[in-house]
Amino acid sequence: MKLVKSLILMVMIWSLNVNAQSIDSANYFRVWQGFQRAELSQQDFYNSVAGFMKATVDLYKGRALNNYIVIIPPVVKPSYIPDELALVALNSKESYDQIRATPEGQAYSARHWDIFDRATSKSAPLVDFTVENPSQLVNQNAYDMIGKANNWAVGYSTVFIGTKKAGLSSELFLSRLHTHVKLAKTVMVPKGLKGYIFIANENYEIAYLNWESKEAHDAAGATEGGQSVFNDAKEIMDVLMYQQAKNFNAGEAISAGEGYSTLQR
């Protein structure tokens, strides 16, 4: 009997250690785009999103969540830009599915529609760019440019929103964006870029980037190669946002024009 109890205890300890280690690495992502329900005032929307961010962390933290990065775009923006965007970085799809199948997970899922417009808000399908090597970008798809497990809770994370330049057709924009993201990967990964997930839309790019450190980010941007990436982006996009996703305790007040990293270490 003592032997059985010892074996059970060893298995429990092993399971806890595996879970703790796995949360330090993200292998599965939800890339959310949310549009505000029309009947909510802007401040009511921000208050509701702040509460929803806390609910997200409370549901997934310690069980599957590696990090949860949220973008609140500026107040002045094109109407086609979502009102809230989020990258949910999780240890696995299996963990995500198990949590969402619980009563608390189902209640959380239903809560989305108290805040967001059901007809226009959704998660984008995610494509592993390295594995699929797509010949063209598909409107409203998300892409993982690096395709490796990464700890999004450490280092230095930035968020980007760029809108299509006037005069560019949607087809040409997506074609040029396809070239641009490959250039960015080629130049920036050797300089410390560890994670790069973006949404391709016929009118914009939304990007989440994770760097080894702020120093690596700044140094990469100052190089000739880094400048070539920025200049290439400027040819096809107007920058609406590009900034750090700042450390944030979920549940605190949020404001427009900010990026938030809720589990940053």
Can you characterise this structure?
It is a single chain. With 265 residues, this protein is of the alpha+beta class. It has one domain (2-261): Alpha-Beta Plaits, CATH 3.30.70. The protein contains 8 helices and 11 strands. Strand 8 (193-201) and strand 9 form a beta hairpin. Helix 2 packs antiparallel against helix 4 (103-115) and helix 6 (170-188) runs antiparallel to helix 8 (224-236). It is globular. Mean pLDDT is 92; it is low at 3-22.
Entry keywords:
single chain; 265 residues; alpha+beta; Alpha-Beta Plaits; 40% helix; disordered N terminus
Write the layout of secondary structure elements.
Layout: H1 2-23, E1 28-34, H2 42-60, E2 65-72, E3 84-90, H3 93-100, H4 103-115, E4 122-123, E5 126-128, H5 129-132, E6 141-144, E7 156-164, H6 170-188, E8 193-201, E9 204-211, H7 214-222, H8 224-236, E10 237-247, E11 258-261
Helix pairs in contact: 2-4, 6-8
Identify the quaternary structure here.
single chain
Query: For the largest beta sheet, what order do the strands appear in spatially?
Result: 4-1-3-2-11-10-7-9-8-6-5
Element pattern in H and E: HEHEEHHEEHEEHEEHHEE
| CATH architecture type | 2-Layer Sandwich
The CATH class label is Alpha Beta
Kindly report the average pLDDT value: 92
Structural class: alpha+beta
Tally of separate domains: 1
What value does the Rg take, in angstroms?
19 Å
Share of helix, binned? 40-55%
**Low-pLDDT ranges:** 3-22
The number of distinct β-strands equals 11
Question: What best-fitting shape do the alpha-carbon axes yield?
Answer: globular
